[in-house]
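Re: Re: token formats

Sure, here are both.
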Amino acid sequence: MKWIESRDPVKRWIGRHKIVSGAVLAVIALIIIGAASSPSNNTSSSSSSSSYYDPGNAVEVPDDGTSDDSASSYVAPEPSESSGQENARAQAENYLSYSSFSRSGLIEQLEFEGYSTADATYAVDAVDVDWNEQAALKAKSYLDQQSFSRSGLQEQLEFEGFTPSQASYGVSAAY
């Protein structure tokens, strides 16, 4: 064991601690290899745009050449609807699938269900509804249940929240 008995203190320490020094060298090698292959170091300058991952959406951000690669260029997409708005819209569509409502009547119904006035109003405005057709359906529903004069049906539809022109359309369609 001439190597261990060397006068150089580094060689003596390595000779006595072969396992520890081998492990240290292996860890250093793994760190260097890991750093060299990490995704943050693999950049391509030939691309004209960069993709940044967002859990909800992949967003393309054009590279106009003025951005600093060290600065973040992530652009968060604007949410199209809050969860309250989305749920209120879905509930409004559900109601309209089996019943007829005036605009104000549907907003009131959603508020009764616990939605805020803002979310209920957003939902009603976000659904594709022909309010004249809703007035006609409501008028026919009333006439199926009981008798109304034209003016009485007009008043009833206006009481339900239909505008005078929508109520008039509904009465004409039902008679």
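Second one below.
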Amino acid sequence: MSEMPSGDPYIENILAEVPEDTARTLTTEQWEGIREALRRARDNPRHFLDVRFILPLYFIRLYCIFVFGRDARERVSHLLIERRKRTMAVIGAIILSVVFVALIALALSALYIIKTLAGIDLFEDVHLRDWML
């Protein structure tokens, strides 16, 4: 690991995680290539807003990151699509239920009107208008 180039602490921390037996086999050119790839990946802005700063307090220094942007992770987008499908299914079921109940109420009302116009009394001296008033 002695051939590892020094520089950016972010990249150094990542490269420090390389197992020692693997690190010993890498040449200076390979270290530079890995370092350049990491730098390009880090310098490629993937967020609308990416603010990083150090907040020095009296007893400790805090590294703060504020990242804002569209979430483009594959797993999250898959979950969002599934959630939208589930939401649409629930909304569709609710709409279908409301329409079904409305059609049943309309059919029962039509049957009641037909029964009343035909003069059929299922129960003597009991009428809907008596219950409504």
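The helical segments are 9-15, 20-25, 28-43, 74-118, 128-132. The longest helix spans residues 74-118.
- S.
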